[in-house]
Amino acid sequence: MGIEATGTLHTIFETKQVSERFSKREFVLEMSDNPKYVQLVLFQSTGDRCAQLDGLSVGDKVKVEFSLRGREWKSPSGEVKYFNSLDCWSVVAVGAGQSRGGSHEPAPNKADWPKSEPDSDIPF
Q1: What pTM value is reported for the model?
Q2: Cα separations (Å) of 29 from 6, 12, 13, 62, 117?
Q3: Record: fold of 3-99
Q4: Is residue 17's pLDDT more than 50?
């Protein structure tokens, strides 16, 4: 399941080596349509995807593609709990603060565009 979210990086944690073959890196995305009700959402990147956050900084606006995962856990006493995780597939910088970590190039300056010939059928 692919879901997208856009927001501002609020916190970026260091990569944790959970086991010999598994590493994860968590980050918090600040998302809100209304500044009065800011949502701070925890995502995780695993394995090679942990490095996607290396070129980004707190305050950068990013687009995250992720999947929603859930699992059941039973304690030794028999109590059952459920956990959700937002597993990040990609993090890409967007908007004005994209110079670090994003692959987006700035829009060309219109003054640098070639001038149209007067009899050209191009409308600009």
Answers
A1: 0.70
A2: 8, 9, 12, 9, 48
A3: OB fold (Dihydrolipoamide Acetyltransferase, E2P) (2.40.50)
A4: yes
